[in-house]
Design a protein that fits this description.
The complex is a heterodimer. By secondary structure, chain A is α/β, with parallel strands linked by helices. In chain A, about 35% of the residues lie in helices and about 15% in strands. Chain A contains 19 helices and 15 strands. In chain A, the strands form four sheets. Chain A has a five-stranded parallel β-sheet. In chain A, α5 (about 65-75) crosses α9 (about 120-135) and α6 (about 75-85) packs across α9. Chain A is globular, with a radius of gyration of 24 Å. The relative contact order of chain A is 0.12. Chain B has helices spanning about 20-25, 65-75, 110, 115-120, 140-145, 165-175, 190-200, 235-240, 250-255, 260-270, 275-279, and strands at about 5-10, 15-20, 30-35, 45-50, 55-65, 85-90, 100-105, 125-130, 150-155, 160-165, 180-185, 205-210, 225-230, 230-235, 240-245. Chain B starts with a strand and ends with a helix. Chain B is globular and about 50 Å long. Chain B has a seven-stranded mixed β-sheet. The chains are: A alpha/beta, B alpha/beta. Chains A and B meet through β5 and α14 of A and α1, α2, β6, α9 and α10 of B.
């Protein structure tokens, strides 16, 4: 039965049922339970199917949003998932971690007056992807004949997985090199279980392997193989670099190397990848802070704070230099953190970490800030208030103020063009200055989102396809490509 | 992958020869690998003491100090390690220095071998000095002799070579006026510090291979940060070798001790045999 626009407008947004805050802040299970099919259908009916599709313009990978939502309204859940997958290889992930309020949902006409009333596109995306996976409806797409080209993808994070998924479906032979012993990059070492269950990432990677993508773990490119070796010795025709951001930044203040001061990367990697929240079954130890201070206002800061709470902290405080509205974290994460009794000290910046004689952190001195003139980006600049300091106790400090480019690959690939911050320079399609070498994700942009990395991967895959297919002359096409095609069949 | 081809024990040090052909092909002196015995293990950084590109193997000497090294030590020939990542770190800077002294203790007895070899191949005069508590705790000696002009020993009980430690041997050499153009040290942090203090008054360029706590080994986490000459460096990507006269040793001791309490808990419960039930 077709609803009228007025009827659709009358339906209020469906929130997702969640674990109650004082239960979940002591466990690592996922926070939202997910929609029931009924809720999903009802939420889908709120979509007005605008002709102009503003939501799609807000999506870095241009998921056909109104189309998949219409299928949900018709209860064709698995079909809806497949429609998303024409543009997004990781819908179960993106439904959970995208900053929808700044992207698709931010453009939704239903959220114009009140953003909290936009169609819950992220929730719906998550629902269909989960539905497809949990009911074993993930069909294998048809793989065309191998075209004879070999592509190496460095890093199995969101951008690398996207490149691999796109190219394998175009007939390329794809090999991923991953530095860690598990695949997924930031999806496994960075984003905690309670926000993105690891079995989802495992399923996505398994699906790629089923399509024929080869993954070599424990392989640090730049050391084990250099970029030139991938071409000259291993015989790849193109290389995609998606190695992620890299080195954590520490503040240049006294006390940064005290025990108990961690980069968020280390803290989260211990907990997520090495599973030290299951210590001692998993052997990697973790220091449990009682009073934990987290520096920064992004998703990583929220993840760190919420992990600390779950590991048994009595008090967790986020210290952020700017104001609340300027926090880069997803709205849902800040909201969840608050519900879990994480405290916020805004417009505050540490100037010193205090330590005891044994070299452990004991407290922090902060300076208060106020908002001043807007900077070039239009954000009001935080300005320190003179002689306005405060102190508080903390035995653990988690530093989550961003990163800098990892030089592992660029320093061993001398002719690769990088910018003054060490990030790789690329054109709009991810082409580096080296022929047939492409890059995307955080190693190009600095720390950004999962979906923007996937967008970069999508564009680079297009460029790789275009550049290789254009050059189908004998010099490029590997000898024996034709026989290989035969064997693959 | 990563099958254990050969294994033996020298007191508390376990020799493991592991199939890892790609690493054997690309590794250089001074680099290390990170290993995991099984999927529950910690990631442990270990210096690679030797490698063979023909057999596709690397040789590790593992000092048994805690639960993870103990679990590695209990693995048998034919077992495979869960993960071996490497080579990692910047290779040693090997020049024709002239006369080079290499000091090694514990795992560093094996660890200095590739550096000694590279120094020898570059035309240096190589003096290797190794220390242990007792004479029967030395290993990898034949190989070391083959690439050294001289191998000197130091033992705590005087059962082989000089009674004392590497730094005592070097001090004596320097007092006698033996010319040393460069020194490399590998072993426990105390040894590295003491040896560096001996070469400092003589302004002998001194390279120490640090062994701070690591996690990923690719620069991503900063667990291994050390202060060198007042600057924060990451041992995994900026090192592992640094100027021994510039390292902030006190900070390094503190940072290295961070997990002792947690590690002791798990080590003791393992030793008492209750681990199996709990996991």
């Amino acid at each position: 039965m077709e609803l009228t626009a007025k009827e659709r407008m009358a339906i209020k947004r469906h929130g997702m049922a969640e674990q109650p805050p004082d239960l979940r802040n002591r466990n690592f299970k996922e926070v939202p339970y997910g929609y029931t099919p009924e809720e999903a259908v009802a939420e889908a009916q709120r979509c007005l199917s605008c002709k102009t599709k503003p939501c799609v313009s807000g999506c870095p990978v241009e998921v056909p949003i109104p189309e998949f939502i219409a299928l949900i309204a018709e209860k064709k859940f698995a079909e809806a998932a497949r429609v998303i997958k024409t543009k997004n290889v990781l819908p179960a992930v993106c439904g959970r971690v995208c900053p929808q309020e700044n992207q698709c949902e931010g453009k939704c006409v239903r959220g114009k007056k009140d953003i909290t009333q936009a169609v819950a596109i992220g929730n719906l995306e998550r629902f269909v992807a989960d539905y497809e996976r949990e009911n074993n409806l993930m069909g294998l797409p048809e793989i065309p004949k191998k075209n004879g080209f070999k592509v190496a993808v460095i890093g199995s994070g969101p951008s690398g997985l996207t490149v691999a998924g796109d190219l394998i479906k175009l007939g390329y032979e794809v090999t991923i090199y991953e530095a860690f012993h598990r695949g997924g990059g930031v999806l496994v070492y960075g984003i905690p279980e309670f926000r993105l269950p690891k079995k989802i990432v495992e399923t996505e990677i398994k699906a790629l392997e089923d399509l024929g993508v080869k993954i070599y773990y424990n392989s640090v490119i730049g050391r084990l193989h250099k970029i030139n070796d991938l071409f000259n010795i291993m015989g790849f025709n193109a290389v995609y670099i998606g190695v992620g951001a890299g080195l954590p930044i520490f503040l240049d203040i006294p006390g940064m190397n005290l025990n108990g001061v961690f980069s968020a990367n280390e803290y989260l990697t211990r907990s997520n990848l090495m599973k030290s929240y299951l210590f001692p079954k998993y052997r990697t130890p973790m220091i449990i802070g009682k009073e934990v201070a987290v520096l920064g206002g992004g998703n990583v800061a929220m993840d760190s704070a919420r992990t600390a709470m779950r590991l048994g902290a009595e008090k967790v405080t986020i210290v952020y230099r700017r104001a609340r509205e300027q926090m880069p974290a997803r709205a849902a994460e800040t909201h969840h953190a608050e519900e879990e009794k994480i405290e916020f000290k805004l417009l505050s910046n540490p100037v010193e970490i205090y330590g005891n004689e044994e070299g452990w952190a004991t407290g922090m001195k902060c300076q208060r800030y106020e908002l001043g003139e807007p900077d070039e980006s239009g954000r009001q600049r935080p300005v320190p208030i003179e002689n306005s300091f405060f102190e508080f106790d903390c035995d653990q400090v988690l530093v989550s103020i961003g990163g800098q480019a990892n030089p592992l690959i660029t320093s061993t690939t001398p002719d690769m063009k990088i910018n003054k911050w060490g990030y790789i320079e690329v054109d709009d399609w991810g082409r580096t200055n080296r022929e047939f070498v492409y890059a995307g994700g955080d190693i190009v942009t600095g720390a950004a989102t999962v979906i923007s990395a996937m967008g970069a991967g999508r564009r680079a895959a297009k460029a790789i396809h275009e550049d290789l297919i254009k050059e189908t002359d004998e010099t490029l096409r590997p000898p024996g490509a034709e026989t290989e095609e035969g064997e693959e069949e | 992958m990563y099958e254990i081809i050969e294994k033996s024990e020298i007191f508390n040090v376990h020799k493991m020869v592991i199939k890892a052909p790609e690493i054997a092909d690309s590794i250089q002196a001074g680099q290390f690998v990170i290993v995991m015995g099984n999927e529950y293990s910690e990631r442990i950084p270990l210096t690679v003491s030797d490698w063979n590109t023909y057999t596709g193997t690397i040789t590790l000497y593992i000092l048994e100090v805690g639960i993870s090294t103990l679990e590695l030590a209990r693995m048998k020939i034919g077992d495979s390690l869960y993960a071996v990542t490497g080579p990692l770190g910047i290779p040693s800077e090997i020049n024709n220095y002239g006369s080079v002294v290499l000091g090694g203790g514990c795992y560093g007895i094996g660890g200095i071998y590739p550096i000694a070899k590279a120094c020898k191949e570059t035309g240096n005069k190589v003096i290797s000095i190794i220390e242990a508590r007792y004479s029967f705790m030395f290993y990898h000696e034949k190989e070391l002799h083959a690439v050294s002009d001289q191998v000197l020993y130091a033992t705590s009980d005087g059962s082989k070579g000089e009674k004392g430690k590497v730094e005592d041997v070097i001090r004596e050499m320097l007092e006698k006026g033996v010319k040393i153009d460069h020194a490399f040290f590998m072993g426990c942090t105390q040894m590295l510090e003491r040896c560096s203090e001996v070469t400092r008054p003589y302004a002998i360029p001194t390279t120490v291979a640090l062994n701070s706590i690591m996690l990923d080994g690719t620069g991503m986490c900063g667990a291994c940060r050390v202060s060198v000459g007042g600057e924060t460096k990451f041992t995994c990507v900026d090192g592992p070798e640094f100027d021994g006269h510039k390292v902030d040793w006190k900070e390094l001791y503190t940072r290295k001790s961070a997990y002792i309490e947690r590690e002791t808990v798990v080590y003791q419960s393992y030793s008492h045999g209750c681990m199996a039930e709990r996991t």
